[in-house]
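Predict the 3D structure for this chain.
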Amino acid sequence: MKKMMFTIITCLMAVVLAACGGNEESKEAKNDDKAKTAETDQEKEQQKQMEAIQKKLETQQVDEKKIVATVNDKEILGSDYNSTLASIQGQMQQMVQDPTSKEAAEQVKNQTIDSLVGQTLLLQQADKKGYKVSEADINKQLDETKKQFKTEKEFEAALKKSGMDMKTLETLIADDIKLKQYVEKEVPADEITDEEIQKTYDQYAEQGKSTGQKVPKLEEVKPQIEQSLQQQKQQEKLAQQVDELKKNAKIDIKI
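Done. Predicted structure below.
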């Protein structure tokens, strides 16, 4: 499912250095200065590494006007590809995976195309069933998106950096709303049993204990577990639906 997000990869890396202090205050001050210098140097090095990674990520992008695929004569452009690509790259980085390696690049490419084809098929199905999105709904979601930024100027800068204009963003918002409407009506969330929740919690608790983490009580995380399981089942249903739609679809991948 396409989620509303800007294609901006922000890496916030905190450097924590503990100074080895002695009993004398002067020694502590000197060590503190050394720690600050080391921290600054490390931050600069990390910034260089981040910039280098970003350049590698950008090499995986394609020309915005290039047609990367057609789905039942619906053209998917490079701008759509780059947006989804950046999202998947960001998800990999969050999971501490390197999306810049040769193997990962091919995986990301295939995943991006699969995602776009699936989204297009589902949107076409939603259109066939008559799902509509009002201008008021789009504006409401747009306002919510803008609230994630401190100022209008910051929002516009983020939009520019993402490679999108306002029209493209509004189209993405409309697609996002339409897909949500379609999923809610056509692929409703299944009821999750207490047994399923307990099983998932036991697995989570076992992993937590093995890593020495404090495990919360079942009652504290039960709503989150239930929601996660519902989403997982919905995704499985959607994947099955996409597979069925592909059987009768005319799909041409061009990259």
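The longest strand covers residues 67-71.
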